[in-house]
Amino acid sequence: MRHNFIAGRWVAGDDALANINPSDTGDVIDRYAVASREMVAEAAQAARATFPAWAHTTPLQRADALDAVGGELLARREELGTLLSREEGKIRTDGIAEVVRAAQVFKFFAGEALRIPGEKVASVRPGVEVDIMREPVGVIGIITPWNFPMAIPAWKIAPALAYGNCVLFKPAELVPGSAWALADIIARAGVPSGVFNLVMGPGSVIGDTLVDGVDAITLTGSVPTGTRVAQRAVGRMIKCQLEMGGKNPLIVLDDADLDIAVEAAVNGAFFQTGQRCTASSRLVVTEGIHDRFVAAVTERLERLVVGHALSPETHIGPVVDERQLEQDLSHIATAEGEGAQRHWGGLVLERDTPGFYLSPCLLTETTNAMRINREEVFGPVASVVRVKDYDEALAVANDTPFGLSSGICTTSLKHATHFRAHSAAGLVMVNLPTAGLDFHVPFGGRKGSSYGPREQGRYAVEFYTSVKTAYVRAM
User: Fold this and answer.
1) How many beta carbons lie within 10 A of that of residue 374, not counting itself?
2) Within a domain: residue 436?
3) Could you tell me the CATH number of the domain that includes residue 262?
4) Rounded to an integer, what distance in angstroms lies between the CA atom of residue 313 and that of residue 367?
5) Among residues 243, 263, 376, 455, which one is catalytic?
6) What is the DSSP string of 107-168?
7) Quick one: 329 and 225 in the same domain?
8) Stated pTM of the model
């Protein structure tokens, strides 16, 4: 049994949830305590009590703690990457890479703790000095999803601590193992009691209490959950940062390098089981290259191995759980009912161990008005939309309620330049998958994908700090 971490103590709950391996449902990784509303309130109180002291620690103390976290993550990357893949279902090499990414994030923000920005400006009044400073916000509530159980917590927790905030961290209940391991590392990295708190359990039980106990809330999750959190946050007049998914287009023009386009599409749409908010779920292809592109993607899919996440032969692991598998199948069935053709895959597979295995699904003959092209599936499912030319491709790409990531495959500098300027997305890729990002630059989208300041990189300072303008008259 793994416990919650509250006010510097490991605390049991009234109940516990089993952590099930989606590659082998007979494998119970461990049991993790469920926090009560009272425990969340206690964690918030502890964080609030210790905040003044933590906010005024030296930047070096915070930098050293974050660097220690990053160092231990790197040292244990194979062990923790295996745990991550075992509980989430992405292949082991991706699990290890994610742990490394988390370590890089902590080390990056260790550096940022030492260079918190500020300004000194001249006043319009003689004899008056003006300083513009950044100060920590207070207690930050952090709610993270199951698809990146180490990286996303890292890119929220690290800047929160770097800038002097305290943290209440609630991970997704499907992947408590990675969260607990990260909490254990942070607890031993020199962070005072109460600064960092881990509360595990369903958002339906503890979510409102968490939002009500903090000074700012950052969430990565679904649109309905994000909307509810935003409404509650606005009601309390606290800062709110939301990342809520996408329906990302990858345009393939007639002049594209076919090999590059195929690899970008297959990687972006199907790797990590398509369970990425930046996945290339809409493949917008001009008619001159359409048939060759579909044939080449199909040939590539035929060579992919779907299997146990820890098997070295596996390219694509299982879907995260039965509920997600049913959702993926429902979207495929609805698309077929609306006239789409299931060109490849979309079948439940049996393997040596019982798990949630789904072959990658390529849908053709779709239109952008179909449900499959309007709603996020969050699985190994991509649909092809045939268009006439670049102008129609751009219009289709931007015709979505989301605006997270977008991409184009072309050898035309003219079209690449125009697309970068006119794509209605926060992330734009040229001849690259729509998924796959650097850790030191801003992340976020537009429209229904994101709300509030950007995440990651130096732009994280906008959410995790408050600006103070101070005047001094020389005597």
Assistant:
1) 14
2) no
3) 3.40.309.10
4) 35
5) 243
6) HHHHHHTT----EEEE-SSTTEEEEEEEEE-SEEEEE--SSSTTHHHHHHHHHHHHTT-EEE
7) no
8) 0.97
Q: In whole angstroms, what is the distance from residue 434 CA to residue 280 CA?
A: 6
Low-confidence ranges of the chain (pLDDT < 70): none
Q: Determine whether 79 is an active site residue.
A: no
Residue 211 has what pLDDT?
Answer: 97
The catalytically annotated residue of 88, 166, 240, 277 is 277
Active site residue 243: yes
Shared domain for 265 and 358, answered yes or no, is: yes
**Closest residue by Cα to residue 379 from 312, 305, 264, 280:** 280
Instruction: Supply 255's token pair.
Output: 């002049």
Q: Indicate whether 180 and 266 sit together in one domain.
A: no
311 and 237, same structural domain?
Answer: no
SS in 3 state form for 184-239?
HHHHCCCCCCCCEEECCCCHHHHHHHHHHCCCEEEEECCHHHHHHHHHHHHHHCCE
Rg (CA), the chain: 23
Q: Are residues 295 and 393 located together in one domain of the fold?
A: yes
Tally of domains within the chain: 2
Does the residue 348 lie in any domain?
Answer: yes
Q: Which domain does 337 fall in, by range?
A: 249-430
pLDDT at 215: 98
Instruction: Report the sign of the C-alpha dihedral through residues 421, 423, 425, 427, in that order.
Output: negative
Indicate the burial class of 58 (C-beta count within 10 angstroms; 0-12, 13-18, 19 or more).
Answer: exposed
β-sheet bridge partners, residue 313: none
Scanning 347-446, the segments in alpha helix (DSSP H) are 390-398, 413-422
Model pLDDT for residues 199-246, shown as the tens digit of each residue? 999 999 999 999 999 999 999 999 999 999 999 999 999 999 999 989
* Residue 169 tokens, joined: 């961290």
Same domain, 269 and 236: no
Q: What is the pLDDT of residue 474?
A: 76
